[in-house]
């Protein structure tokens, strides 16, 4: 049936690649992607702030229905990030405390819901990364349809199964599978440069001459 299927995942970023990104802020990676990709400002952390990184196990489901999300939890490998496009609808919660607890026992690295969650107080105190667009007490239906391991998009950010998903307090980012190594090199250098800048600020030695140079280059009139 079209729109109702479970596909095998063909590839996924390695655990070694995931580990290398854990200490790099999402903002640094985003800067190295020309600031052109993001999961949407509505998707916020609903947990204690623990950073998230792992290969995507994608789910597309009917708004308000979580049947395929339950199946994804059973299929998930340790370290996977389950990314659910539920249409951004906030009428019914897609997951809550019970499903999050089960995900933790499965070794899931995080859950992203383009939709709503419930049991927010409990999830907020937990270390399992959960990102969602909103909260409601109304529970989900379990009728389908949906697709596991298909291409999804969150606010224009395309996600293929096995791509690298990153999350921290600033939001979510997908690093395409084929670009992981190049982006790690660029983002690592960016992060190192920012740490050096913070050290210069602390020492009172930050060079801000670039500001006037930039203004002059843009033709800003000064008196």
TrEMBL record:
Cofactor: Mg(2+); a divalent metal cation
Lineage summary: Bacteria, Pseudomonadati, Pseudomonadota, Betaproteobacteria, Burkholderiales
Top-rank taxon: Bacteria
Residue positions binding substrate: 96-99, 118
Pfam family, one: RraA-like
Keywords (A to Z) from UniProt: Magnesium, Metal-binding, Methyltransferase, Transferase
Name under which the protein is recorded: Putative 4-hydroxy-4-methyl-2-oxoglutarate aldolase
Species for this entry: Achromobacter aloeverae
Entry binding sites for Mg(2+): 119
């Amino acid at each position: 049936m079209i729109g109702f299927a479970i596909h095998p995942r063909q590839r996924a970023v390695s655990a070694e690649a995931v580990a290398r990104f854990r200490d790099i802020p999402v903002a640094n990676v985003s800067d190295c992607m020309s600031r052109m990709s993001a999961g949407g400002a509505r998707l916020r952390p609903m947990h204690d702030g623990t950073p998230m990184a792992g290969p995507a196990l994608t789910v597309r489901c009917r708004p308000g229905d979580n049947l395929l999300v339950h199946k994804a939890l059973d299929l998930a490998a340790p370290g996977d990030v389950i990314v659910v496009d539920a249409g951004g609808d906030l009428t019914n919660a897609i997951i809550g405390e019970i499903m999050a607890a089960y995900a933790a026992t499965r070794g899931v690295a995080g859950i992203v819901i383009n939709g709503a969650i419930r049991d927010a107080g409990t999830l907020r105190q937990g270390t399992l990364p959960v990102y969602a667009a909103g909260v409601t007490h109304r529970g989900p239906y379990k009728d389908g349809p949906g697709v596991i391991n298909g291409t999804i998009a969150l606010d224009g950010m395309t996600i293929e199964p096995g791509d690298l998903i990153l999350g921290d307090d600033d939001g979510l980012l997908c690093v395409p599978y084929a670009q992981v190594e190049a982006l790690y090199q660029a983002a690592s250098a960016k992060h190192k440069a920012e740490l050096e800048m913070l050290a210069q600020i602390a020492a009172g030695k930050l060079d801000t001459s670039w500001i006037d140079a930039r203004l002059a280059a843009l033709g800003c009139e000064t008196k």
